[in-house]
């Protein structure tokens, strides 16, 4: 006989609203049903009502943690549509910012993962060291979180030469702490007891359910858009794709921590090889009818942008597929066979960002037809 | 013995990483995108800032006939400061603009 444990939409375990229905047999989870759409914001519709230039800042706000990679992907897509190529220096500055973002996102993941297994000391330490990378971001972009650096055709600010020594010093500190956490993650008894053989995703399942990002790499699937389909400056930068064999929560953490070290290497190389020249090319933003797709490697996995233009200065349709959406399908095989106490850490092991991923389509259950809800109708529902 | 204990003991005896904020202030770096300042004498009323603002936070002040920024909507992207031909809008390093009442 199975019982149902509902988790969400409002639940202390979840950072954002989403509904999960766990079927349990005693302590063991036998099935999970996921219902998405609680954090729907109508952002794709909003994107198709603003001009290309204004959309850069709206795209940046799809995800707070991975804001640079969102705006970079958007700018790359529009640049491809308009047929312009950003200058080399701008590509390098974008790469530096994206890698700093990967470092801060993975350190944030480490902190919350430690918190989920009740290891609050590590949570405090990881978030303390995350401040170093936030300071570096503030130094070169002028904002701790939202960088507002990207624009269509390049970047808005240059990395000044007097900032480079400060950045290298900050990276040294980060490397020291990242090495310490990598060491700790591989040897601490608490972490090993809570994370090994928990939430295992086998290599076959990772391929079958199209897992992306660190989740796939922890199951020994070598996918990284930076390497497979190089964009921006990544073709010229040298780095390794990190993979682990086990596929459990421990491996997912290890992939992320080793990626921090790899990102530090990339930032150092990019700062060293930073080409001189302008950072911006002027763009005429009246784009003839066309469509294009661009994909990048966000900290959480593969991010896809699709834009269709119609000859005006606003896009006709923008579709954003965030990495969390790609990872939801793998969740069932990760949860099945586990215990109820494992739910928080397994859930967090995919690094979910529900706010970025939620989209809504209203389908009439009788006729099977999808329809659009007008603003007046929404206001009536609110009452 | 837990591996993290040496780090914890070291933290116990060294000075805190955090600063006592209202009493000790950390100066933001050069180029920080803080509160916007409008120099009303330099404004030539071209309204480029209104057109370029992605959050539509800038409007025309009815009395002075100069742009005024609604900080509740402003996203501090700095586009208006960049586009202003006479540099009448500038970004300051001020970040303390929390208030209890709408002024």
Q: Short summary of the structure?
A:
The complex is a heterodimer of chains A (383) and B (103). Chain A contains 16 helices and ten strands.
Structure characterization notes:
The complex is a heterodimer of chains A (383) and B (103). Chain A has 383 residues and is α+β, with helices and mostly antiparallel strands. Chain A has one domain (43-320): Cytochrome-c3 Hydrogenase, chain B (Orthogonal Bundle), CATH 1.10.645.10. Chain A contains 16 helices and ten strands. Chain A has helices at 43-47, 52-60, 67-82, 88-116, 120-141, 163-187, 189-195, 203-208, 213-218, 225-228, 249-272, 323-327, 331-335, 343-349, 354-357, 375-382; strands at 3-7, 19-25, 28-35, 150-151, 154-155, 290-298, 301-309, 315-321, 362-363, 370-371. In chain A, the strands form four sheets. In chain A, strands 1-2-3 form a three-stranded antiparallel beta sheet. A three-stranded antiparallel beta sheet of chain A has the order 6-7-8. In chain A, strands 4-5 form a two-stranded antiparallel sheet. In chain A, helix 3 (67-82) runs antiparallel to helix 4 and helix 5 (120-141) runs antiparallel to helix 6 (163-187). Chain B is an alpha+beta fold and 103 residues long. Chain B has a domain at 29-91: Alpha-Beta Plaits (2-Layer Sandwich). Helices cover 18% and strands 12% of the residues of chain B. Chain B has three helices and four strands; from the N terminus they run H-E-H-E-E-H-E. In chain B, the strands form two sheets. Chain B has a two-stranded antiparallel sheet. A two-stranded antiparallel ribbon of chain B has the order 2-3. In chain B, a hairpin with a 6-residue loop joins strand 2 and strand 3 (67-69). Chain B is elongated and about 65 Å long. The chains are: A alpha+beta (383), B alpha+beta (103). At the A-B interface, helix 2, helix 5 and helix 6 of A face helix 1 of B.
């Amino acid at each position: 006989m199975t019982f149902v444990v509902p988790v969400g939409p409002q639940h202390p375990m979840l950072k954002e609203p989403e509904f999960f229905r766990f079927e349990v047999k005693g302590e063991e989870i036998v099935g999970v049903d996921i219902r998405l759409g609680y954090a729907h914001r109508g952002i794709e519709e909003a994107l198709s009502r603003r001009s290309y230039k204004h959309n850069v800042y709206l795209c940046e706000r799809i995800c707070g943690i991975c804001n640079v990679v969102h705006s970079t992907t958007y700018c790359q897509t529009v640049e491809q549509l308009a047929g312009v190529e950003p200058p080399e220096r701008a590509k390098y500055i974008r790469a530096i910012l994206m890698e700093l973002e990967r470092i801060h996102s993975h350190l944030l993941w480490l902190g919350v993962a430690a918190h989920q297994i009740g290891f609050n000391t590590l949570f405090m330490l990881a978030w303390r060291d995350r401040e170093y990378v936030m300071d570096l971001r503030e130094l070169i972009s002028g904002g701790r979180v939202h960088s507002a650096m990207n624009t269509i055709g390049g970047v808005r600010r240059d990395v000044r030469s007097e900032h480079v020594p400060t950045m290298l010093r900050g990276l040294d500190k980060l490397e020291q702490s990242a090495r310490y956490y990598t060491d700790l993650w591989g040897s601490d008894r608490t972490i090993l007891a809570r994370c090994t053989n928990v939430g295992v995703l086998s290599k076959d399942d990772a391929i079958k359910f199209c897992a992306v990002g660190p989740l796939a790499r922890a199951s020994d699937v070598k996918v990284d858009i930076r390497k497979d389909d190089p964009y921006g400056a990544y073709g010229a930068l040298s780095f390794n794709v990190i993979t682990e064999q086990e596929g459990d929560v421990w491996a997912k953490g290890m992939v992320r921590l080793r990626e921090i070290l790899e990102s530090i290497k990339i930032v150092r190389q990019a700062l060293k090889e930073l080409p001189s020249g302008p950072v911006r090319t002027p763009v005429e933003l009246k784009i003839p009818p066309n469509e294009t797709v661009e994909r990048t490697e966000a900290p959480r996995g593969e991010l896809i942008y699709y834009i269709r233009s119609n000859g005006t200065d606003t896009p006709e349709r923008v579709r954003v597929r965030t990495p969390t959406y790609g990872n939801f399908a793998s969740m069932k095989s990760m949860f099945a066979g586990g215990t109820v106490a494992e739910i928080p850490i397994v859930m967090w092991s995919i690094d979910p960002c529900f706010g970025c991923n939620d989209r809504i389509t209203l389908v009439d259950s009788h006729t099977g037809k999808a329809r659009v809800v007008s603003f007046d109708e929404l206001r009536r529902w609110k009452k | 013995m837990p591996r993290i204990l040496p780090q914890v003991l070291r933290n116990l005896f060294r000075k805190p990483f955090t600063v006592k904020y209202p009493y000790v202030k950390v100066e933001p770096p050069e180029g920080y995108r803080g509160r916007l300042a409008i120099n009303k004498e330099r404004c030539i009323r071209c309204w480029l800032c209104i057109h370029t603002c992605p959050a539509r936070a800038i409007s025309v002040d009815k009395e002075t006939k100069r742009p005024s920024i609604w900080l509740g909507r402003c996203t501090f992207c700095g586009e208006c400061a960049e586009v202003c031909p006479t540099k009448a809008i500038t970004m300051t390093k001020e970040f303390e603009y929390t208030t209890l009442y709408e002024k």
